Amino acid sequence: IFRTPVSMDSEDGRFHVDITMEPDFSLPAVNNESFNRIYCDNRASLCVTSASDTVVSRQFDKMSFAEYIDSIFNRLSCRGFEKDAVKLEAEISVPHSDEECYVTIIVNRDGTVEMKRYEVEEVPEEIAGA
């Protein structure tokens, strides 16, 4: 379990982004027999607040990314703001393999979500943090 609080400035003022990742034991564990390891999926809670209210409160889990890759939801990171939306990045992968992808997530102020998948070799520099 980990928590990554971040405060950032956007066009609409200062926002606080709080992402909490924790194991999702409601899902079956993934067994990798080649490495004799068992992996657990994760779920993330996202809360974006301004000085006066909660802008976005949302949960992400494996099913949030099922159309992109059937694997382990590893990480959710805040990459900043885009107009009045929060820009996030999710990392999804098959443990101990080359099968992984990144999903850019834009969460708008009204709660709507836009997602776009990138293969590892296609990840734009602003997403990869390079």
State the low-pLDDT regions, or none.
none
Overall residue-averaged pLDDT value: 79
Helix and strand pattern: EEEEEEEEEEH
Strand order of the largest sheet: 1-2-5-6
End-to-end gap? 26 Å
3D shape: elongated
Tally of individual helices: 1
Q: Beta-strand level of the residues, as a percent range?
A: over 45%
- Could you give the count of β-strands? 10
* Alpha-beta classification: mainly beta
- Main beta sheet: 4 strands, antiparallel
Evaluate the radius of gyration. Answer: 15 Å
The amount of helix comes to under 10%
SSE blueprint:
Layout: E1 2-10, E2 13-23, E3 30-32, E4 37-39, E5 42-49, E6 54-60, E7 72-82, E8 85-93, E9 100-108, E10 113-119, H1 125-128
Antiparallel strand pairs: 1-2, 2-5, 3-4, 5-6, 7-8, 8-9, 9-10
Question: Could you characterize what this model shows?
Answer:
The longest helix is centred in the last third of the chain and has 4 residues, at 125-128. 20% of the residues are buried. This protein starts with a strand and ends with a helix. The model has no long low-confidence stretch (mean pLDDT 79). The chain is elongated and about 50 Å long. By secondary structure, the protein is mainly beta. It contains 1 helix and 10 strands. The strands form 3 sheets. The chain has a 4-stranded antiparallel beta sheet with strand order 1-2-5-6, with no helix packed on it. Strands 7-8-9-10 form a 4-stranded antiparallel beta sheet, with no helix packed on it. The chain has a two-stranded antiparallel sheet with strand order 3-4. The protein has one helix at residues 125-128, and strands at residues 2-10, 13-23, 30-32, 37-39, 42-49, 54-60, 72-82, 85-93, 100-108, 113-119.
